[in-house]
């Protein structure tokens, strides 16, 4: 049983409340400074929900990385390394990187085909009308519900294990600060907090990494760690790995997890309105490189975290400081995400408990802020403004966005508490998500990339795919395990079949449904281009801004082909050229190769920090300098008056 006496419930309350108030106060202060010294009008709904469409590539990349760094990114990558060896972190990072890189293709098409859209769902309505609009509203909202459930369920389980806080209290307090700064600062506030969260998360990962490989008295060198991993491979061989080794990419179960991970994450990227919000908020030149940079930067976070903390858990689980000593972590503890905090505790004691607490808090809240804005924008623009009050004023839209945020958070808190007490863990939800949402991925992509997909196909293919995925998932479970429960439905094989059917079945349904009722003429995308700004904000948008957008459309068209080739090329490198030779050869890492593997991850993490931590500062240096200069001038003027 997982036990630790390092942190108390009081410590937990102090951290949750303190960090929540700290970040919300900080973001409110920054928002006020930007309004005062940088001319940003937060009372404009365009500013609040689209950040004036001027976010630059550095801040955009940082925000994408932060939104994609869930609690699962850190917890699940560590757990699969503990289960499958060094391949686990690689399969996790690889299987969730290419979606962000490929999304750059959709981002460019979206930006130039619908330059004034507020959500992706608006363009679905513009092309397919009310029926298609409502079907994808449900899929998009369900994606946000699933992701937020994972954040709250996984985060609360880990925090409860670290300090013993009541689960209900954690679920209410964890999103507190995020609610405050999202309501006050809107989308721009989430970009700024995401940047700060990123910096702190990467710094903590560096601390864990350098302690593990350099300064730890228990580990402290590549040679010592390699020897311990070889011994563990002999003492506790991994089922399904070549020769039972922790030091190979040839892992049958690891490969099945990779495919589940790959399929499920197409859904949570391409059906998450948060990523489209970032496209909308960004300047056109930023779109060209930001998603490529973000995908490459993000890879290092689960790769290094999972490899490092998974190795610590494997090699030090026989240490008396390990929370489950003398036992290994059981299945429930692993799927609840307790591998990372266990490794942190045995590595750094109370400091490890505190750092893992902060790490999970930041990962949960940074991704949560993106989910909140995604949901409020759907409810505000796609439901309320479209079907209830088309001429709503900006004040009314503000009210609806704030009210919907509060209602959504309350629903998610209640749902997450229910999931916890029903023993449905973050790991289970993570592998299940593709079955429930990925049938809508192909229709969503073809909405922008195909001129032939008809209304019947876009409406029925995701629903038929969902039915097929659930049926195949449950039938596979029944066939191989003879009973259906949480344990059997959570098996890798059942989840893999269900996920693959969900993603691939629309590839069969869409052509068939297109044949039943083919379009008379190919779609020309004109209706997407006609989506307009909100009337109140159109008044505040000058002609020069309109001209800039027109120029940006031309720029995006000119660069779309090169970005498409680049994204596909990187994807082929990630999913074919790099992993399969190592898998097929059944290569077991030598000590030298193991050392180079770890060093590659550390160097990559430094590059990632440059992208998400340093690059945004360089890009916005003039603005930062100007704001501080104006603050100094105001203070100087005030003192001279006295």
TrEMBL record:
CDD domains registered for this protein in UniProt: SLC5sbd_DUR3
Organism: Adineta ricciae
Keyword terms of this UniProt record: Membrane, Transmembrane, Transmembrane helix, Transport
Family matches, as PANTHER family: PTHR46154, UREA ACTIVE TRANSPORTER
GO cellular component: plasma membrane
Gene3D superfamilies assigned to the protein according to its UniProt record, in alphabetical order: Sodium/glucose cotransporter (1.20.1730.10)
Record's bilayer topology term: Multi-pass membrane protein
MF-aspect GO terms: putrescine transmembrane transporter activity; spermidine transmembrane transporter activity; urea transmembrane transporter activity
One matching Pfam family: SSF
Name of this chain's protein: Uncharacterized protein
Annotated InterPro entries: DUR, Na/Glc_symporter_sf, Na/solute_symporter
Family, per entry: Belongs to the sodium:solute symporter (SSF) (TC 2.A.21) family.
Localization of this protein: Membrane
Residue ranges crossing the lipid bilayer per the database entry: 12-34, 89-110, 131-152, 158-183, 195-213, 255-276, 288-316, 358-384, 396-421, 427-449, 456-475, 495-516, 563-580, 592-618
């Amino acid at each position: 049983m997982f036990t630790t006496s390092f942190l108390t419930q009081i410590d937990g309350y102090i951290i949750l409340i303190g960090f929540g108030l700290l970040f919300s106060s900080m973001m409110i202060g920054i928002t006020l400074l930007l309004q005062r010294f940088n001319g940003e009008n937060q009372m404009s709904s365009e500013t609040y929900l689209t950040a004036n469409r001027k976010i630059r590539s550095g801040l955009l990349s940082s925000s994408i990385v932060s939104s994609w760094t869930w609690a699962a990114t850190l917890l699940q990558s560590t757990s699969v390394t503990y289960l499958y060896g060094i391949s686990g972190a690689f399969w996790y990072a690889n299987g969730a990187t290419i979606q962000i890189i490929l999304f750059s293709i959709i981002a460019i098409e979206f930006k130039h085909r619908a330059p004034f859209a507020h959500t992706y769902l608006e363009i679905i309505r513009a092309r397919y009308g009310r029926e298609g609009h409502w079907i994808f509203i449900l899929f998009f909202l369900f994606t946000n519900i699933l992701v937020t459930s994972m954040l709250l369920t996984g985060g609360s389980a880990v925090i409860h294990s670290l300090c013993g806080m009541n689960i209900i209290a954690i679920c209410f307090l964890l999103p507190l600060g995020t609610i405050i700064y999202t309501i006050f600062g809107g989308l721009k506030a989430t970009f700024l907090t995401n940047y700060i969260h990123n910096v702190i998360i990467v710094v903590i990962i560096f601390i864990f990494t350098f302690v593990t490989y350099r300064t730890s008295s228990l580990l402290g060198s590549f040679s010592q760690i390699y020897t311990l991993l070889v011994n563990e491979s002999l003492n506790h061989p991994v089922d399904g790995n070549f020769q039972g080794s922790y030091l190979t990419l040839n892992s049958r179960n690891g490969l099945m997890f990779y495919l589940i991970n790959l399929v499920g994450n197409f859904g949570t990227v391409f059906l998450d309105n948060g990523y489209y919000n970032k496209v909308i908020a960004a300047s056109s030149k930023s779109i060209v490189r930001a998603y490529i940079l973000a995908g490459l930067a993000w890879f290092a976070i689960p790769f290094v975290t999972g490899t490092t903390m998974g190795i610590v858990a494997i090699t030090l689980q026989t240490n008396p400081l390990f929370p489950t000593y003398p036992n290994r972590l059981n299945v429930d503890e692993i799927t609840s995400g307790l591998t990372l905090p266990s490794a942190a505790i045995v590595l750094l004691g109370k400091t490890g408990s505190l750092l893992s607490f902060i790490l999970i808090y930041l990962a949960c809240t940074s991704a949560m802020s993106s989910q909140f804005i995604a949901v409020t924008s759907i409810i505000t623009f796609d439901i309320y403004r479209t079907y209830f009050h088309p001429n709503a004023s900006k004040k009314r839209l503000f009210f609806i966005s704030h009210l919907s945020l509060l209602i959504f958070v309350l629903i998610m808190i209640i749902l997450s508490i229910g999931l916890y007490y029903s023993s449905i863990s973050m790991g289970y939800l993570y592998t299940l998500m593709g079955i429930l949402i990925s049938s809508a991925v192909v229709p969503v992509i073809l909405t922008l990339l195909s001129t032939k997909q008809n209304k019947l196909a876009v409406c029925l293919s995701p629903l038929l795919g969902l039915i097929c995925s659930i049926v195949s998932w449950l039938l596979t479970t029944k066939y191989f395990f003879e009973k259906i429960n949480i344990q059997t439905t959570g098996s890798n094989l059942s989840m893999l079949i269900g996920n693959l059917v969900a993603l691939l079945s629309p590839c069969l349904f869409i052509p068939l449904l297109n044949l039943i009722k083919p379009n008379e003429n190919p779609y020309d995308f004109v209706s997407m281009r006609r989506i307009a700004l909100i009337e109140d904000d159109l008044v505040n948008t000058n002609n020069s801004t309109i001209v800039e957008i027109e120029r940006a459309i031309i720029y995006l068209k000119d660069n779309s082909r090169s970005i498409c080739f680049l994204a596909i090329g990187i994807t082929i490198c990630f999913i074919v050229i790099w992993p399969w030779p190592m898998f097929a050869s059944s290569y077991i890492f030598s000590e030298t190769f193991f050392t180079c593997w770890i060093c590659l991850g550390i160097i990559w993490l430094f590059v990632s920090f440059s992208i998400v931590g340093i690059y945004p500062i360089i890009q916005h240096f003039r603005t930062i300098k100007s704001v501080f200069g104006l603050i100094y001038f105001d203070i100087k003027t005030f003192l001279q008056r006295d």
